[in-house]
Amino acid sequence: MSLWDVLLSIFWFMLLVAWFWLLIGIITDLFRDPELSGGAKALWCLLLIVLPWIGVVTYLIVRGNSMTGRSIAQAQKNEQGSQQYVRETAGSSQGGIADELGKLADLRDAGRISAADYDQAKARVLGLTQSVSS
């Protein structure tokens, strides 16, 4: 095997890798687009499989401009979901305990529970005791 054959093999391998990369990106973009019908998605997939390079180049020419917009919209949606999850998680762990303690203090101040009951419930909320029944 000569050096030229090795270089040619590397070139064809890299071309194959590039096609797989584009194919995955295009199929991801196809199924991310809510405006495209199921039949249109199937036709694009068929074109990409039957005529691989022609299908990829055609897709990039026809729908390439809007690929970035859909990608940015998906990234923003993921970021909003992540921020909402962090807010909910932080709110439930921090605010939850504070809210519980505030409610217990209100009940004690209103005379609905005794100071001993308040201390026992406070310890349970803060996780200082295992349970009331033990």
Give your account of this protein's structure.
This protein is mainly α and 134 residues long. It has one domain. 85% of the residues lie in helices and 0% in strands. The chain has 4 helices and no strands. It has helices at residues 3-32, 38-50, 52-110, 115-126. α2 (38-50) crosses α3. Mean pLDDT is 87; it is low at 130-134.
Tell the overall outline.
Answer: elongated
The percent of residues in helical segments reads: over 70%
Low-pLDDT segments: 130-134
> How many strands, which pairing sense, and closed or not: the largest β-sheet?
none
| Count of alpha/pi helices | 4
Give the ordered list of helices and strands: HHHH
SSE-based structural type: mainly alpha
- What's the mean pLDDT score? 87
Number of DSSP E strands: 0
Structural Rg: 30 Å
Give the distance, in angstroms, between the N- and C-terminal Cα atoms: 79 Å
Report the portion of residues in β strands.
Answer: under 5%
Number of domains: 1
Question: Strands, helices and their partners?
Answer:
Blueprint: H1 3-32, H2 38-50, H3 52-110, H4 115-126
Features:
134 residues, mainly alpha, 85% helix
What's the short story on this structure?
The chain is mostly helical. It is built from four helices and no strands.
